[in-house]
What does this fold into?
Amino acid sequence: MAQGLCRSDIDADRALVVAASGPAPKRWTIDRLTTLVTMFTLGRVAPDPRQLALWMSETSRLVADLPHDILAHSIDLAVQSGRHGFMPSVGEIRAVANPLAAERSQQLDRLDQMLGAQWLDADRENVHQSDGGFNELNCGGRTRVHADRFKL
It folds into this structure.
């Protein structure tokens, strides 16, 4: 039997992508930035606490729109690829994160287009391969038409 997507499959996939697209919790971001400061200031003069608080506040504000998984990955890659021996700048983090966030946005747009498409009557009964190229598939316990199920 053929396999295909049902509208409910697309709804579920979209819900997962939306859930993964939430911004990183502020506490996590501050903790991650604190770890970076600790890691990069070992053996050096400790930064002024007021300057450190200002840097953390401003840096967390500038990356607050990034999804949690993308921010975590971007910080790691910026640290790994840094050649100057200093903490990665917001620009270095965003250079990794922005293309990933754009791809995530594009995925959501595509899923929205699929959900907004005109779905043909997929609940037709007794549709066989011989009547115009349609074949059946099982989706959620119901028979669904596989060919030409939606139009964009």
